[in-house]
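Morning - magnesium ion inputs below, output right after.
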Amino acid sequence: MTHLVEAHDLYRFQGEGADKLAILRGVSFAVAEREFTCIMGPSGSGKSTLLHLLSGLDQPSAGRITLRGKDLAKLSENERTLERRSALGYVFQFFNLLPNLTVLQNVGLPLAIAGKHPEHEEARLVGLLEKLGLAQKRSSFPHQLSGGEMQRVSIARALAGGQPLLLADEPTGNLSQKAGLEVMHILRRLVDEDGRSVLLVTHNPRDATFADRVLFLVDGELSKSTELRGPGLHVDRVHEALAALAI
Ligand SMILES: Nc1ncnc2c1ncn2[C@@H]1O[C@H](COP(=O)(O)OP(=O)(O)O)[C@@H](O)[C@H]1O
Ligand SMILES: [Mg+2]
């Protein structure tokens, strides 16, 4: 099986001396192709820190990360940037769309930044917007969209380069219940219909039910005793696991 990303015994410390804090403590796991993995953990458990490391935006204090089999620490800064851009896209709680650009221009922006010509790839980008239910919105500006639509635009932008892996950090945290549910169905479809992989980190039990696999991060460590299998998990199973872990 091909793994898009592998984490081997990751540690991340913050601070020095007596103030030194272990944010991640020996985290190991992998995400396969066409797999939807969710890492659940309460606020402060190290979820965002972990995604930063996996994306090469930050470096671990110890341990090893591979993206598509390449050890990130062995790449030059430039190679790491190129690998990150082609391997993964990233979405957050906040959408970070540029207000003066249309939906289609926002989605094409990463291509422009990478020195490509988004206008030459318009048909593909419009196809991506269609998949995300945004076909009618390509010429709209961000302020004309709902929160759920803005998040879907940011997902399209994250995957505009054809990246196989989406990292999603609390992507429904700023959305209504209904809009959040729509975004979760979109993420599921990206895996089932588009063959991408999703790594979601969240503290939302409902969102976890969409994943193929739910891991639990507690104080910077992945639980060795508890792991759930989906998709189609009942939300009660997630609540039970959280209660058993006392988080
Ligand atoms: N740059 C930093 N300096 C100091 N502490 C940090 C830094 N980044 C994160 N932390 C701490 O690390 C812990 C985990 O943070 P984070 O990864 O943001 O958790 P989560 O995303 O699960 O809420 C928190 O206690 C946070 O305060
Ligand atoms: Mg976070």
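Note: Residues 47-48, 169 surround magnesium ion (ligand 2) (CB under 6 Å).

O.
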